[in-house]
Design brief:
heterotetramer, A: alpha+beta, Aldehyde Oxidoreductase, domain 3, 5 helices, 10 strands, about 30% helix, about 35% strand, globular, B: about 80 residues, 5-stranded mixed beta sheet, 3 helices, 5 strands
Chain lengths: ~160, ~80, ~160, ~80
């Protein structure tokens, strides 16, 4: 059960969020998050993103985040899929699906996973606009969102039931 | 030997993706390795003095004091921006 | 845009959550909640639920909840689908999909909608077990979850942009 | 006339889904209507004295003091359990 409960995947291919939800185990409450590439950023119009990652460390980091989520909340599943390579505007870049018996735990765990992923998982975005390309800067708001979870921290990366 | 990797903007600034560096008495910690790399020239010095850079040893986030041993893979990279 | 932003539906037919997500408008952050019928409750095993509602008032109540969500948070869409009639264990009973530019707003609005729905929308569940059927009692935990939102209330049902 | 609807467990207890009641001077509020219904007999009295019952007028949640007028649709029902 452990291996199936936390599932993480890093891939180049596009994916359909609805089809990923169909793969989750039966449970009373399912919360999903899908992040799509927006066609506009603070720096201007965006045609596509180029996503760089650190093969090996990225997967390990996502696994640790999913594992920490299952240690902190009572979950039936925590799945993470993140694309790398070139991703066109409008396409999905990340998907998180969390299953639990109770909706409060599913909501909290899904939001925690996204906040942790944004600050701890080695991915880097380069925006491709009409003329130029530029690296995306990390956002302070992501750091402060992630810090919220430290206040009630009950588990630690690496000690969860999925490791 | 140590394997040293650079990612994203840092990789572009240094025009370097991976280095193989012989272990040496002066390279016992991540901070020592970072100093040695910075001494390679002005571009390296400027890129590596960025206080926001993150460091990893063997695929785990590391501190300046994290010790290094032969065979370790060390990485330097900017703050992450996935999701 | 208004009409499309808040969409609520009450139906007898089964539905696929993934297909509903495909109908949401393009946006940076999408959070969905799916509630499935569990085969076990506090009162015993559950073969199916019979969902009763108040035609007219139920739809109006869901519309008011979606509208309040769009008044409180900056959303591109808030869709709610709820089944009525007989629903077998394992089948989906409710689905909420929320789209926003920022994930924090999508998470908050989706959770708010579920908490409000659980305490304000006229639906009543009857559990069918192996031998008997019994009405499900309202839960205090649902009431306290709903009350959290009053603390930071900025909009009111009926004043949202979707009415 | 007033239309009065009952739902879920309450509907079963009363064995009644909908009533049509002529407007009368003594039925000016939801509370007055509730009292009048309770006087129909022991089953009605017991079912309607449940303090957790919710009330709606014309598809909006109502208070005991909510006024009633000809043509209104009033509903009584247990706490909701959807989702």
């Amino acid at each position: 059960m452990s291996a199936d409960r936390c599932r993480v995947q890093v891939q180049q291919a596009a994916f359909n969020p609805g089809q990923l939800q169909d793969l989750l185990p039966p449970s009373g409450a399912v919360v999903t998050f899908t992040g799509n590439v927006r066609d506009l950023s603070a720096a201007g119009s965006v045609h596509a993103l180029q996503l760089e990652h650190y093969p090996g460390m990225t997967e390990r980091s996502l696994q640790a985040i999913a594992s920490e989520a299952t240690a902190r909340w009572s979950l039936r599943a925590a799945h993470i899929l993140h694309r790398v390579g070139r991703i066109e505007a409008g396409e999905a870049i990340v998907w998180v699906g969390v299953c639990a018996d109770h909706r409060g735990e599913a909501f909290a765990a899904c939001e925690f996973i996204m906040d942790a992923l944004k600050t701890r998982a080695p991915f880097w975005k380069k925006e491709h606009g009409a003329q130029d390309a530029r690296w995306v800067e990390a956002r302070d708001s992501d750091i402060s969102r992630a810090e919220r979870w430290q206040l009630t921290r009950t588990g630690d990366a690496g000690t969860g039931p999925c490791r | 030997m140590l394997t040293v990797r650079f990612f994203a903007r840092l990789r572009e600034q240094l025009a370097c993706e991976v280095l193989e560096i012989p272990c040496a008495p002066g390279l016992g910690t991540v901070a020592a390795l970072r100093s040695a790399l910075a001494s390679r020239g002005p571009v390296w010095q400027q890129a590596l003095e960025d206080q926001n850079l993150l460091m990893a040893v063997n695929h785990s986030l590391a501190e300046p004091a994290t010790p290094l041993a032969a065979g370790d893979e060390v990485a330097f990279f900017p703050p992450v921006t996935g999701g």
